[in-house]
């Protein structure tokens, strides 16, 4: 049995506003083992980013709040520790890369300083060592002229280069877990492949586990060991990458696989399944996917199914497999 | 960059030239005859005309303007009609008191306003924010003569800690600079609050937090510098206004500055002094503007000077 590094159990994160409660994440269970890459896929708005921000406890400044479930990192309950302890984990043991490379770096500070900052903070390097380390990291992520780039500002770099800088920054303290929230969505195809290669290489070398959030099943196929499929704030299926592609059980996963774009074709969203993602104000009774499901039955419209273990390390939330063993309620 | 600023400095000359035309016309449109004031209320018409000739007021406007410019270029601002002393000396004597009062007012007001703004922005919709913004609204809406008089009443008359007016020691600066800076602090607080609140929504703020930085470090280290451009612009404008000298505050605190010189000279139709003062204001604004532009470059590396 592999060693667990991150264990999200039945996470519920809700946003409260004047117009009511939005259950952005409503029962998400994800386990990431040491050194492994887990893909989290699902259509836009299904709660992928909110899940990752919940893990990092970065929902401050938003109306979002974790209202249920647990998040354990190396056996430590992240919801229970103090903000100070959490800061020691952020950027150090869990690092994060974001979807928006163009805006994720501070425009008024030099690249080197922004990388060195985390290094000085967590590895207790002095200024000169941290700068040295920043240059090495830039070299490691394949940035040419690293010695010059440290003293340049973000606006002087392209999107792909900036995402490399973000990766350099994230990997600088050798995190045990990297959460990459659609790291390549904003980049063009050739750059995408380079960035993915780089992430794979670095995770192998540093034995870093990756939680890779993406729209792109092509990326999943290439990068991931296991896949978690999310729909409307819930996990609907989870299995290893071969099972997901060869033997998907949930009709939503099947739909996603049908809509996989041809190789090299760039898509920002998976929207070729007929129908729309339900809006928070218009959540259907029962299974959230029922209105779009080709295999819908009467019971689907009345009651939400549980996430069931349907095979060895293969879970699915669907009435088609109701006779399976109950994993969780 | 040096080249850019040299160019800008040289560019001041034509601007001042145009400004001088407006000032000249404006001053000559002020109703009331300076020659009559100089000669005295009961002087004869012949006397008044003699004074007019002496001052060159009988010549056509464009001749008067040409002489005005010619003299200024030679550094001669003429004599005050009222005191008969060189205008340059009159203004120089009044400039420093106003400058220092403005300087100290700006220093405390900008620092204080900034701190209030940052706290209000980070404690949004908590009591600190409400308190800060209540203070800011008060600072903007309290009339300065009222605030000045209240401060004098409390600290000078009742408690006897500080002088009621004049410019004798550092203590004399305290009450007038509080009065003068209150409005500036309020404006800076509001500007920095709204600007910082915008910046705090940026993605790189999330990056800073994700690095494990303390919230203080995120705010003061990453957000503040990004939010400074509107604040610096506003502070520059305020500085320019205050350097003109506040008539109200200099009157309330018997401060020997430019503001009082201005009302004295306007009520006496002392047009050489008025012209020189207005020219000085224009120059101050231009220089402050240049300085603010320089600061933009420091704050945002993406701004290039060409
Ligand atoms: N700051 C916020 N305030 C209110 N609601 C929010 C906020 N952030 C997210 N949500 C809600 O959470 C839901 C899930 O958002 P999330 O960003 O996690 O989606 P996602 O799966 O990451 O989508 P994408 O693929 O577009 O990035 C959204 O539909 C939205 O309703
Ligand atoms: Mg997202």
From TrEMBL, chain A:
Gene3D superfamilies: P-loop containing nucleotide triphosphate hydrolases. SUPFAM superfamilies: P-loop containing nucleoside triphosphate hydrolases (SSF52540). The keyword Membrane applies. GO terms for cellular component: plasma membrane. One of its GO terms (biological process) is peptide transport. It is found in: Cell membrane. Its main location: membrane. GO terms for molecular function: ATP binding; ATP hydrolysis activity. Belongs to the ABC transporter superfamily. This is ABC transporter ATP-binding protein.
From TrEMBL, chain B:
Residues 95-292 form the ABC transmembrane type-1 domain. The lineage of its organism: Bacteria, Bacillati, Bacillota, Bacilli, Bacillales. This is Glutathione transport system permease protein GsiC. It comes from the Bacteria. It is found in: Cell inner membrane; Cell membrane. Keywords: Cell inner membrane, Cell membrane, Ion transport, Membrane, Nickel, Nickel transport, Transmembrane, Transmembrane helix, Transport. Part of the ABC transporter complex GsiABCD involved in glutathione import. Probably responsible for the translocation of the substrate across the membrane. It comes from Neobacillus novalis. CDD domains: TM_PBP2. Belongs to the binding-protein-dependent transport system permease family. OppBC subfamily. The gene is gsiC. GO terms for molecular function: nickel cation transmembrane transporter activity. One of its GO terms (cellular component) is plasma membrane. The complex is composed of two ATP-binding proteins (NikD and NikE), two transmembrane proteins (NikB and NikC) and a solute-binding protein (NikA).
């Amino acid at each position: 049995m592999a060693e667990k590094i991150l264990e999200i159990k039945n996470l519920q994160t809700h946003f409260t506003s004047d117009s009511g409660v939005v259950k952005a994440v409503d029962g998400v269970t994800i386990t990431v083992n040491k050194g492994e890459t887990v893909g989290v896929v699902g259509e836009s708005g299904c709660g992928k980013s909110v899940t990752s921000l919940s893990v990092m406890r970065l929902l401050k400044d938003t109306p979002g709040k974790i209202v249920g479930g647990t998040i354990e990192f190396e056996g430590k309950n992240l919801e229970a520790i103090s903000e100070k302890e959490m800061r020691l984990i952020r950027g150090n043991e869990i690092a994060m890369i974001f979807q928006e490379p163009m805006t994720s770096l501070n425009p008024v500070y030099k690249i080197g300083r922004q990388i060195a900052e985390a290094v000085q903070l967590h590895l207790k390097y002095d200024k000169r060592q941290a700068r040295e380390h920043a240059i090495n990291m830039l070299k490691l992520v394949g940035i040419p002229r690293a010695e010059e780039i440290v003293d340049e500002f973000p606006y002087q770099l392209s999107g792909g280069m900036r995402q490399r800088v973000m990766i350099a920054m994230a990997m600088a303290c050798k995190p045990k877990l990297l959460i990459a929230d659609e790291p390549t969505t904003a980049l063009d195809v050739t750059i995408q492949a380079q960035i993915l290669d780089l992430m794979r290489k670095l995770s192998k070398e540093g034995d870093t586990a990756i939680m890779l959030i993406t729209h792109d099943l092509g990326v999943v196929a290439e990068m991931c060991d296991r896949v978690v499929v999310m729909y409307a704030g819930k996990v609907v299926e989870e299995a290893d990458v071969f099972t997901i592609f060869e033997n998907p059980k949930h009709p939503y996963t099947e739909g996603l696989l049908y809509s996989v774009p041809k190789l090299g074709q760039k898509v920002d969203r998976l929207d070729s399944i007929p129908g729309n993602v339900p809006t928070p104000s218009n959540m259907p009774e029962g299974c959230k996917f029922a209105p779009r499901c080709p295999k819908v039955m009467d019971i689907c419209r009345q009651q939400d199914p549980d996430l069931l273990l349907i095979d060895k390390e293969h879970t699915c939330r669907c009435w088609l497999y109701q006779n399976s063993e109950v994993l969780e309620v | 960059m040096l080249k850019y600023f040299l160019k800008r400095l040289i560019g001041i000359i034509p601007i001042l030239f145009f400004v001088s035309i407006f000032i000249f016309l404006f001053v000559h449109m002020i109703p009331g005859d300076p020659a009559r004031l100089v000669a005295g209320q009961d002087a004869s018409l012949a006397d008044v005309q003699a004074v007019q000739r002496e001052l060159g007021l009988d010549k056509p406007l464009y001749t008067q303007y040409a002489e005005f410019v010619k003299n200024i270029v030679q550094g001669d601002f003429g004599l005050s009609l009222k005191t008969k002393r060189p205008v340059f000396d009159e203004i120089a004597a009044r400039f420093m008191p106003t400058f220092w009062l403005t300087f100290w007012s700006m220093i405390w007001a900008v620092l204080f306003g900034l701190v209030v703004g940052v706290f209000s922005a980070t404690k949004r919709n908590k009591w600190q924010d409400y308190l800060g913004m209540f203070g800011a609204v008060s600072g903007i809406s309290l009339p300065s003569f009222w605030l000045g008089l209240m401060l004098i009443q409390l600290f000078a008359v009742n408690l006897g800690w500080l002088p009621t007016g004049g410019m004798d020691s550092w203590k004399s600066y305290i009450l007038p600079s509080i009065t003068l800076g209150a409005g500036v602090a309020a404006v800076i607080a509001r500007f920095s609050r709204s600007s910082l609140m915008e910046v705090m929504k940026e993605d790189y703020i999330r990056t800073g937090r994700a690095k494990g930085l303390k919230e203080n470090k995120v705010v003061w280290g990453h957000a503040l510098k990004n939010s400074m451009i509107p604040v610096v612009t506003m502070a520059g404008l305020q500085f320019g206004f205050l350097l003109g000298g506040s008539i109200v505050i200099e009157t309330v605190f018997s401060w020997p500055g430019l503001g009082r010189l201005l009302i004295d000279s306007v009520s006496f139709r002392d047009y050489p002094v008025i012209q020189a003062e207005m020219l000085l204001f224009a120059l101050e604004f231009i220089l402050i503007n240049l300085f603010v532009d320089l600061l933009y470059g420091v704050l945002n590396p993406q701004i290039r000077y060409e």
